[in-house]
Amino acid sequence: MLIRQLSVFLENKQGRFTQVAKLLGQEGINMTAFSVSENADFGILRLVVDETDRALDILRHHKYAVTEVDVLRLRCPNQPGALGRLMDVITQAGIFIEYMYAFSEGPSGYVIIRPDNLEECAEVLMAHKSQLTSVSDLYEL
């Protein structure tokens, strides 16, 4: 299932992630998944939240540089080799993954991926019986 992810560009200084986490928390927005990557000058906080539109408005109101992009979120068994098999399906279809991040809860793992072709990747995964999930599924864990 396609879900919306926010990318927040942060100055590479101590406390920048803390500011965003506190701001969203104070506004009652839950970060359900996130990843931080950085270089010498700035970091990119990629996050999935329970209220994307509100989070986008709040971050922009507080002068954060933020963009929105669609990604796929899917369930993957939390066992050795499962992610490799899943990625093999995507690779065999000729789909390039720009980035991904994952987390696990009990018997299931969840992977958020940004492929170069969202629709094709979703079709390939569904054809191979992969479970694409929504943000609301996170709250049923």
Summarize the structure.
The chain has 141 residues and is of the alpha+beta class. The protein contains four helices and seven strands, in the order E-H-E-E-H-E-H-E-E-H-E.
> So what's the CATH class of the largest domain?
Alpha Beta
Q: Which structural class fits the helix and strand makeup? A: alpha+beta
Sum up the overall morphology in one term: elongated
* Biggest pleated-sheet summary: 7 strands, antiparallel
Low-confidence stretches: none
Q: How many separate domains?
A: 2
CATH architectural type of the largest domain: 2-Layer Sandwich
- Taken as a percent bin, the fraction of beta residues is 35-45%
- Count the beta strands: 7
**Helix proportion range:** 25-40%
What labels would you give this structure?
141 residues, alpha+beta, VC0802-like, 2 domains, seven-stranded antiparallel sheet, 7 strands, 30% helix, 41% strand
